[in-house]
């Protein structure tokens, strides 16, 4: 079974790994090798844990009791699992909004879980969070490779623009918004 839950501080290293893997594997078709390597290779910001926790970030998890023996071994080993209560789980993706800014800040899915509906599950849950917080229009800056994903969820695309990454590189992105 796949479900969502709030991020804990124990999840952060796995979350950063998912983000890095998603950039390396998902963005290489739309960005130069240099851009992808620089973006993915940037160190985790010192305040990343605090940002995730304060903004109510969520993770999508697969409960281990639904997995095969091989998947259980992987989930408990190198892939970054947690045990919440008595149930081991495998983190498949994460996302968060900044309700005060009316922004969907991130949705990242483990490349091995792409196509399973994880991104859609996260995005819908984040939209619910935004509505509960009183957000009327949710905006985001989409990487070029994710524009189609967000369009399928009802977001409208603006004109291509540049986003300056903390490493100094500028990445092309598409501003998008959706009325909630």
TrEMBL record:
InterPro entries, sorted: Acyl_CoA_acyltransferase, GNAT_dom
Stated name of the protein: GNAT family N-acetyltransferase
N-acetyltransferase domain: residues covered: 2-180
Organism this protein belongs to: Shewanella psychropiezotolerans
Classification lineage: Bacteria, Pseudomonadati, Pseudomonadota, Gammaproteobacteria, Alteromonadales
PROSITE patterns: GNAT
One Pfam family matching this protein: Acetyltransf_10
């Amino acid at each position: 079974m796949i479900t969502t839950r709030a991020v804990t501080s124990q999840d952060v290293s796995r979350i950063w790994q998912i983000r890095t893997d998603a950039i390396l594997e998902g963005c290489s078709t739309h960005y130069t090798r240099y851009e992808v390597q620089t973006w993915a290779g940037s160190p985790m910001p010192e305040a990343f844990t605090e940002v995730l926790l304060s903004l109510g970030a969520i993770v999508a998890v697969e409960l281990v009791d639904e997995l095969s023996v091989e998947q259980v071994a992987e989930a408990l080993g190198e892939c970054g699992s947690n045990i919440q209560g008595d149930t081991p789980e495998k983190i498949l993706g994460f996302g968060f909004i900044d309700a005060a800014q009316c922004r969907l800040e991130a949705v990242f899915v483990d490349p091995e879980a792409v196509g399973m509906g994880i991104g859609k599950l996260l995005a819908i849950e984040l939209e619910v969070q935004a509505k509960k917080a009183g957000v009327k229009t949710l905006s985001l800056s989409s990487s070029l490779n994710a524009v189609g994903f967000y369009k399928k969820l009802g977001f409208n695309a603006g004109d291509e623009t540049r986003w300056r990454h903390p490493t100094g590189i500028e990445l092309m992105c598409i501003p998008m918004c959706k009325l909630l």
